[in-house]
């Protein structure tokens, strides 16, 4: 047997142990006791065969280059895999720590991190989230009775010249509930609104209070510079949350219940026992179970209700849940009433819609029908009725002074301040703005940043100047409209009188005689006769038993005869 037959190279190599044994005829090492041969494992045989195959064919030029390329590609892929794993680990660690790596110009969309059973990351990158959906309004289907509804002409009743209700086309309650938007309306100009919190207050130029703060005139001007992210004064400047050690304090049980209101809120308030509680009428069962009805009262009103046996331990009167307010921020009940009227979005932070009704009014239409008619159908986020008679702020100010609604000097100072800021009398040139003076006893509002900003700034004007909110309405609206295309719905006053009935204050009602008992026959006594003392020998019985017949006279002839009567001299 030759070396070639054994598969060994005879020259050009270091040789092998087997070749040396054949040549020298012995072993260069000391012999050891014979050991029975062990069968090598199968995996070892496979690795040895692969190694021998590589050693056999690697010296060949083409196969060697091919093996070199395969090894290079494997090393390259391994380097990429290790680098990507390190970047992913660094990104996840930075997300967990709250610190993100600096922006390198590459856009990364990280929507969610899913984990499998062993805790490894399954997927990180995902497509960008879709844009936030907004309510864009709707049109009534063809043939709907409210589609082409127009107001009829007013009745020709010359005896009644004051304000009166007019017809309003409401959808049925079921249809109105079905049309409630799933998404909020678009908020032009501002998308994030926060509120200033101050514990150490310092007075500014003029106006302000411990409850609303003392914003300077510079801060006031900055609040009208509408931008995407804003922080403004909006009452409740002290304390941890509105209603808790802020002034206008409310019990924790009521605060928790108010925070749980996530749909529609109907609210009113009575301070100083000035009004009587009026129950809403024509309310659907769905609204009774889903709408939050809140009546805010002070301690004086609470005592009056308990003494009149209207309020018990349940703290409910009909549909109204009574929320007692402690530590009122103002001495004037009219200013205290502006807190829930304009800041319902702060008292009910999770509510979507609110309906404010003055305590002198009685609600007679379902809240969902009102929201559908004046907000959703108009694609508006704020609705208020305009004054039935006055459209100009300056005329409204003079009417307030004539009726002694507030101190005349304070009203003049406020109006002069607004005139210097550019407020002008109302003319037809301001159309489509239909009025500068609202009838603020009803406010219909969607709680989105732009409408919340409007009521915050409106409240700041009331807190700085007079509590007559009709005077400060137009200046706030116009300043916001200068920066955005936001509009509000100012509907007719006769439409407001369609869903609320105006009553009288308690002091007026107490002067009236009590109503007759049910089933009793009302006896109407005639008015006492009026006796003219200049007529002698006329008894009172003649006026009651026998009416005096009026004898017609020919006044024309008498005047004519007197005019042409001749006077005889002497």
UniProtKB/TrEMBL annotation:
Compositionally skewed regions (Low complexity) per UniProt: 1-27
UniProt-annotated stretches for the region Disordered: 1-41, 549-570
Signal peptide: none
Residue span, TOD1/MUCI70 glycosyltransferase-like domain: 193-505
Ranges of compositional bias, category Basic residues: 551-570
Bilayer-spanning residue ranges: 63-83
Cited InterPro entries: TOD1_MUCI70, TOD1_MUCI70_glycTrfase_dom
This protein's record includes keyword Nucleotide-binding: no
Cited Pfam families: TOD1_MUCI70 (PF04765)
UniProt keyword terms in alphabetical order: Membrane, Transmembrane, Transmembrane helix
Domain of life assignment: Eukaryota
Protein name (record): TOD1/MUCI70 glycosyltransferase-like domain-containing protein
